[in-house]
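ok posting inputs for the 4AD job
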Amino acid sequence: MSPTRFDPIARAFQPEAVGSTLRVRGWLQKGRSSGGILFLLVRDRTGSVQVTGKKDALGESVIEAVSHVQVEGALEVEGTVALDPRAPGGRELRARAIRIVDAGAPFPIFTEQTEEFLLDKRHLAIRSVDHVATFRVKAQLLAALREFLAQEEVLEMTPPVLTGNSAEGGSEAFEFDYFGRPGYLSQTAQLYLEALLAPHERVYALTPSFRAEKSRTPRHLTEYLHLEVELAWCDLDELLGFIERMFAFACRAVADRCPPELAQLGRSADELRAIRPPFARLTYSAAVERLASQGFPVSWGKDLGSAEERALTLESPQPLFLTHFPREVKAFYMLQSADDPRTVEAADLLGPEGFGEIVGASCRETNIEHLLERLRQMNVDPASYEWYFDLRRHGNVPHAGFGLGVERLLRWMLRRDHIRDTTPFPRTPSRHTP
Ligand code: 4AD
Ligand code: MG
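and the output
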């Protein structure tokens, strides 16, 4: 068989394909032989098709050899498309020739294995239908987010991941030895995006962020993909408008572009299409009052935990912006509110139905004295932020931005149980291999 041209397996299911000859190649999903006939399910990136092989067409030795190919072995098949109501999708490929590319060793993954085993074998487990569907949706989601940002004239930037200071709080930064000096894996690209703002005004980055949080929860990874946007001349109201439009755009794009994947994962496209701005906005102060009336032990000034966040959206099919947090519980760079100096111009976007935080957003503090005051309160040496203060000295303009956890968004969209299901090689406190 000449390796010059192969057909996508999906072609077997086009209306006019019946009776035509196809050449396909891919991986064996499952195989058996019965009464001297081979029944194979062969998968490529476009789908899978049943392949049948008979002795009179292939010869005894080929039947024998192919019957020893293991699950996830690789094959090339030439055959004729035929209707068969018993085959998946109602079609099969009746083989005239089969070439074994790799017969494969016995595949170690099958049903009813422990989660730990599957994580040890993650490099192979990612071939499962649920993982395949998830990472296809993730690719479409990233493409859609980039499309939206291009439409909005926001420019993609490439900030560093190796940095000399921690931006979100020292205790959760991964520290490493950078040629004898301390280095930190980036927790956020924000400070670099702020620097890129004066020349470009509207910028974003899609880069990994790292958090050395020991918390073992279904919503935390130690490495995640962070979409961060920074906009010049932007206030909180405009920023939240931008976020809700982007969120709804992403939901619609996934609903429109991924019906088979959503079906595979049991998720309804209509629920995604039903996400419509404007999203409700609730101040932290109002949330504390509401939670207190529901019996939560909350008091003004304390950060809300995941149980409180959950309670705020449990009944809502739409996301919710929680705004104007106490200044003390938030990052040093957030803008102090003009009408209430105890709060900052910031918002978290909470996913529907108790999902919790997906986006963290704020206007940025432009006053160096306020920045210094917060760093001192946090016992952080301002010296390493000297370059950041320069940004406040040269063309300091109002600006705002946000960070969205891509795996958090995907986990909500697909209703996956655990955030590690939304990334091929999850990094958690207990695991950084494979
Ligand atoms: O709220 P965070 O910490 O905000 C920032 O880092 C800002 N500097 C971003 C910015 O304004 N440019 O993180 C932003 C988002 C969170 O809302 C959450 O979705 C996600 O990042 N995130 C995580 N995702 C997975 N695992 C973790 N450990 C995460 N920590 C934060
Ligand atoms: Mg946050």
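notes: The radius of gyration is 27 Å. Residues 168, 188, 190, 211, 213, 220-221, 224, 226, 228, 357-360, 401-405, 407-408 surround 4AD (ligand 1) (CB under 6 Å).
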